[in-house]
Amino acid sequence: YVQSTAVDVSLQAFSSFVDRYDIKPYFMIHDSLVFECDKETYDSMTSTELFSDVDGLGRFYLSMNRFVEDI
After folding, report:
1. Model-level pTM?
2. Rounded-to-integer distance, Cα 9 and Cα 1, Å
3. Predicted local confidence at residue 26, as pLDDT
4. Which of 19, 43, 44 lies closest to 33 in space, CA to CA?
5. Paired strand residues for 28
6. 30 — alpha (psi -120 to 50), left (phi > 0) or beta?
7. How far apart (Å, rounded) are the C-alpha atoms in residues 47 and 27?
8. 27, 13 in Cβ contact below 8 A?
9. Can you tell me the distance from the alpha carbon of 18 to that of 22, in angstroms, rounded to the nearest whole number?
10. Quick count: other Cβ atoms within 10 Å of Cβ 13?
11. How far apart are CA 52 and CA 64, in angstroms?
């Protein structure tokens, strides 16, 4: 049950994240989303807390790591 809930939370968070920001998603690996975005979008995302609220479970914070430095 715990792993299934974690997957549901991840999918909901990713869906909300893609809808909120101008990003181009490439693929998902377990609980990670690999995507591309322009510098303005990246700056917008890093200037605020990223999270997803899930009814009945609470707030889940998202973290972001950059693979390419010269965006």
Report:
1. 0.72
2. 12
3. 93
4. 19
5. 33
6. left
7. 24
8. no
9. 7
10. 20
11. 14
- Residue appearing with tokens 């303005």: 40
Can you tell me the distance from the alpha carbon of 20 to that of 3, in angstroms, rounded to the nearest whole number? Answer: 26
Residue closest to 63 by CA, chosen among 12, 5, 10, 24: 10
Q: What is the DSSP string of the chain?
A: -HHHHHHHHHHHHHHHHHHHS-EEEEEEETTEEEEEE-HHHHHHHHTS--EEEETTTEEEE-----S-S--
Torsion of CA 28, 31, 36, 41, to 10 degrees: 150
Strand partners, 54: 58
Kindly report the length of the chain.
Answer: 71
Q: What is the pLDDT along the chain (71 residues), one digit of tens a residue?
A: 566 778 888 888 888 888 989 899 999 887 788 999 998 999 999 898 988 888 888 898 888 888 877 65
